[in-house]
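[step 3/7] inverse_fold.run input=structure_tokens len=462
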């Protein structure tokens, strides 16, 4: 783990000191090597509960897939941003790439932190580079409003988490994750106190996921962010919320059965409502952003179910959604760079202009709606099974959610690819080899996980 962390730090330093003409080739080569190096974490992925131990960091079967996903997205986000930054001055290109490298380093520390206070500091530190990327390299003047929403939602929701962590340290004299999970001293508190403590701890993660009701910052941030910001925001930063939920529901395993029942109802209902909201979207990126809210609400419901099926389904859906949503934003950016609009009514008939890109659209849409045998289907089935055992009434809500998810995904595919070609699109640049490479590197891991799904399953008892 130390090797990977130091390698990521070296890439950040390299982004700051490399001569400009070697900057992009250097970063692409180094980030690609780091992505391959991160795959070594899978070698002892199933041997013990915790491995790659250092003084402050370690990995287990929950954090390992998320660390690899974070590192895997770094070269892909750099690759997707290359054309976007060509018109930028050279110092801004360097700052942009350094922010992406620093964000990856912070994410590695967040997912591998053994100490809950270190986890909290790194969790909050992801706000800084993301906020700079959105507000400086966003597309519209509304990017400042999007950054403000993102800042205040994250900060205000995180304050109860800090208070809960300090209280936990005062009670147990340790906030190391393995020791906190094994400790039985939480039984000295009343059920009402533990329930309040639990809700105060998880509210920050519900805002980061986000579930329906705390989601207002996400569509604004996605729509205004540049392509790399949207990719990392959808693929990684949302998963911080799911990771934190799973970690903290281990600590508060008993009171979550009572205190999170209203939250489960909100998550299941929110997944259905956001699916309906997606159908009436006119902006391509806003539709993809709202679909992320629906999927993450389903993830939160699976975690709150406190069952083996639910937690395994949540992890599978998080990893699969990270790859699929990032690929969808890449495809939306590919269309935007040629038509200069994200409006679905104006982005149509691209099948005749870019037929190979339509193939990527088809595969990604199939994965997003949960077509077998892709991992998205299994994640959703596991969560629906867990919710069904909790309350049979949820079958109606989740069933409608699945139907409407297929409707808005097919609506996105039909509107952008199969409609009649507009008259103003006389000359469109063809898709480039680097863009096809980017898409293949998104979808190949998704297909390979179908063959070996145990790589993204927990190996410790739930």
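[step 3/7] decode complete -> sequence:
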């Amino acid at each position: 783990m130390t090797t990977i962390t130091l390698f990521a730090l070296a890439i950040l330093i390299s982004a700051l000191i490399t001569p400009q003409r070697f900057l992009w080739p250097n970063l692409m080569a180094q980030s690609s090597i780091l992505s391959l190096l991160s795959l070594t974490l899978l070698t002892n992925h199933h041997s013990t509960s915790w491995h790659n131990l250092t003084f402050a960091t370690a990995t287990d079967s929950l954090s390992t897939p998320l660390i690899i996903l974070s590192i895997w997205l770094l070269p892909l986000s750099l690759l997707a941003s290359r054309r976007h930054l060509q018109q930028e001055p050279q110092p801004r290109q360097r700052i942009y790439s350094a922010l992406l490298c620093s964000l990856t380093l912070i994410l590695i520390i967040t997912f591998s932190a053994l100490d809950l206070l270190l986890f909290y500091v790194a969790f909050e530190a992801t706000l800084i580079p993301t906020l700079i990327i959105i507000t400086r390299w966003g597309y519209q003047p509304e990017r400042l409003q999007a950054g403000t929403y993102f800042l205040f939602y994250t900060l205000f929701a995180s304050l109860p988490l800090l208070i809960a962590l300090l209280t936990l340290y005062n009670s147990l004299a340790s906030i190391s994750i393995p020791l906190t999970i094994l400790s039985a001293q939480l039984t000295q508190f009343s059920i009402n106190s533990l329930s309040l403590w639990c809700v105060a701890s998880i509210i920050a993660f519900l805002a980061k996921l986000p579930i329906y009701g705390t989601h207002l910052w996400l569509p604004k941030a996605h729509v205004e962010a540049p392509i790399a910001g949207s990719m990392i925001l959808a693929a990684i930063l949302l998963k911080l919320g799911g990771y934190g939920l799973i970690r903290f529901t281990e600590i508060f395993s008993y009171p979550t059965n009572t205190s999170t029942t209203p939250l489960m109802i909100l998550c299941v209902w929110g997944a259905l409502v956001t699916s309906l909201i997606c159908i009436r979207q006119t902006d391509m990126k806003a539709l993809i952003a709202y679909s992320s809210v629906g999927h993450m609400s389903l993830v939160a419901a699976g975690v709150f179910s406190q069952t083996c099926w639910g937690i395994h389904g949540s992890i599978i859906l998080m990893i699969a959604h990270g790859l699929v949503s990032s690929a969808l934003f890449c495809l939306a950016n590919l269309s935007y760079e040629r038509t200069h609009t994200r409006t679905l009514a104006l982005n149509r008939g691209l099948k005749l202009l870019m037929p190979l890109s339509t193939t990527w659209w088809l595969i990604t849409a199939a994965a997003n709606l949960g077509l077998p045998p892709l991992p998205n289907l299994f994640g959703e089935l596991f969560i629906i099974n867990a919710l069904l055992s909790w309350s049979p009434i949820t079958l109606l809500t989740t069933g409608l959610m699945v139907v409407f998810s297929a409707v808005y995904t097919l609506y996105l595919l039909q509107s952008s690819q199969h409609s009649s070609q507009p008259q103003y699109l006389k000359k469109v640049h063809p898709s480039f080899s680097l863009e096809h490479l980017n898409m293949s590197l998104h979808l190949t891991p998704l297909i390979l996980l179908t063959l070996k799904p145990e790589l993204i399953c927990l190996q410790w008892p739930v």
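[step 4/7] annotate
The first helix runs from residue 2 to 17.
The chain has a mean pLDDT of 85.
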